[in-house]
Specification:
314 residues; mainly alpha; Methane Monooxygenase Hydroxylase, Chain G, domain 1; 17 helices; 76% helix; 0% strand
Amino acid sequence: MCLCQLASELQSIEQADIQRSMATNYFKDVIELRSKSILEDLRQLSSIFRTAPVTVLRNLPRCLPAITQSLGSPSQSSTFYNGILLGDKHPVKARVLNDLGKLYTVWGRYSEAEPLFEQALAINKELLGEEHPLIAHNLHNLGSLYYYQERYQEAERLYRQALEMNKRLLGEQHPDVACNLNDLALLYWVQKDYSKAEPLYHQALEIKKLWLGKEHPNVARSLNDLAQLYSSQGVYTQAEQLYQQAIAISKRSLGDNYPEMARNLDNLGMLYAKQGRSEEAKALHKQAWEIFEQKLEANHPWAIRCRENLEVLV
């Protein structure tokens, strides 16, 4: 089974259920036979990390053990790291280091993620110089790691570096700039610096509409983010309108039984609960829970939060 097929399968399901032995044997073949297509294999492996939903990424440790065995530690003497196939300063090696760092960040293995991001950044700087979109991407990912570690000042510094670099290199209306703006806004939101977060969320939303159209799931996510911001400030009428817009777009673009849709329902339910609209809140949480129960594992953060929201109201 080639990585291209594996990536396609991972994208098509909500929970990865790939046979451990099949994945392990494939990667053993790649490593031991020094496959002539190794660069393409690694590029396709990277595509899994970039495109698979978070629910899949959280399950990759049990589904693809060979990835963590062969790429999991720079100290291991695998052919990927010792330079036999790629060399110490190969751009594909930098990409795999970066993508594995993202996986470790998702899994909460922060101390292992940081040196991987730093190595990827160092390789790319040596190959590409100080100003390049890939450098901005590496900086942003390292900033995200610091965000998850609550190292907010360090995260802000890197987010801003990445944002300004992408503006210079790609232009102020580029999708990567929207991503930078959105995550910087989230950083300010968690610190309750709402006046800084709001304009950034609006800028990100407008860029997404420009590139993706008004009916895209990413636009719904931005509307959801803005609604959360207004809800946090007690601006309930505006928050409700934005949640309802996000739900409508999610329904049209993804369907009625998608986890993103359920998350929007759960968020609107939380807003109604804040306003004392308990019956409306309970109905929305139940709708959301029915979707989560079908689509996500019970220990998924969205499912846990929804279950807790329901328990409070019962």
